[in-house]
Design a protein that fits this description.
Layout (H helix, E strand, L loop, with lengths): L17 E5 L5 H12 L3 H13 L3 E8 L2 E11 L13 E9 L8 H14 L4 E7 L3 H9 L3 E4 L14 E7 L3
Parallel strand pairs: 4-5
Antiparallel strand pairs: 1-2, 2-3, 3-4, 5-7, 6-7
Length: 177
């Protein structure tokens, strides 16, 4: 099944001890399985892409773990515009991407913890961070507001992202050092 989880602001939350940490090789299959529940596609292909992310110093894959089980994933990538990109391409910089939490643990603050960790990592490297969000994803739009993101534009493209015109917003936040 793909799509966003139902969003009910203020709903009661379960409590648990959550460990947020950099992803390691042993996490990749679970991360790939989480990702394909939302995006579809092949677990093996996603796992291969995640493996490459572990080797890239401009990428930071992070996981949230409860009782030794990975229940959430999110990453940061560094995007650089290519001369072949169209003029509406999103600017160079670090981007939050791919936040997903297992169905059982959605809407319990795990996305906030993963976002806080990814912003911490980025703040060691840059003065700002970007993300783009589907306008129908109220949960992520609220999350980005809590972390100080503001709208840059709705007229943009991003390499290899299947964005439909008018459905997403590019957001930016300044990072304090």
């Amino acid at each position: 099944m793909t799509g966003f989880a139902e969003y009910e602001p203020g709903a009661a939350r379960k409590t648990a001890d959550v460990l947020v940490r950099p992803a390691v090789e042993a996490d990749l299959t679970t991360c790939a399985e989480l990702i394909v529940t939302r995006t579809g596609g092949s677990v093996d292909e996603r796992r291969s892409r995640l493996q490459a992310d572990l080797q890239n110093p401009d990428r930071y894959p992070a996981v949230a773990e409860i009782d030794g089980q990975v229940v959430g994933y999110g990453a940061v990538i560094r995007h650089q515009i290519s001369p072949a990109d169209p003029p509406t391409t999103a600017p160079d910089g670090y981007y939050l991407i791919g936040l997903i939490v297992s169905n059982e643990w959605r809407r319990h603050g795990i996305g906030d913890l993963l976002t806080q960790d990814r912003i911490r990592w980025t703040a060691e490297r840059a003065d700002e961070i970007y993300t783009f969000v589907n306008l129908s994803n109220g949960a992520i739009l609220d999350l980005t507001r809590r972390f100080g993101f503001s709208e840059v534009t709705r007229d943009f493209t991003f390499p290899n992202a299947p964005l439909k015109p008018g459905t997403c917003v590019l957001l930016r936040a300044e990072l304090n050092h």
